[in-house]
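S1.2 Input.
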Amino acid sequence: MKARTILIIHTTIFLCFAFAAISSPYFALHYPEYFSALNLIVFGVIAVAVVGTWPLFGGCPFTIWENTAWKRENPSRAYRGACIDHYIERWFGIRLPDHLSTIALIVLFLIPIVSGLVW
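S1.3 Output.
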């Protein structure tokens, strides 16, 4: 698969996840049946499983796959570190402080869980 295709898939998945996480307080308030204890446990397990794969791959699997493809297709496009940090700087010219993207991901995982517990 081409690096650009992996990037598009990765970005789409992340944006959908971020939108769902950010909108979860609204949905928890108006549709609490979707935030049952079982669903919160399942989401928590998925969150731990996703982050748990990172040590196995040496980082986010999508980032690893993308960089592997970039090294094959155009080595000058390969980068080190978090993809969020890299692309925010590349696309928007904003350099994020160290670990901010990791903290943001943790917050995004916690928003739906906390929303379900509160409402």
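S1.4 Remarks. The mean pLDDT is 90.
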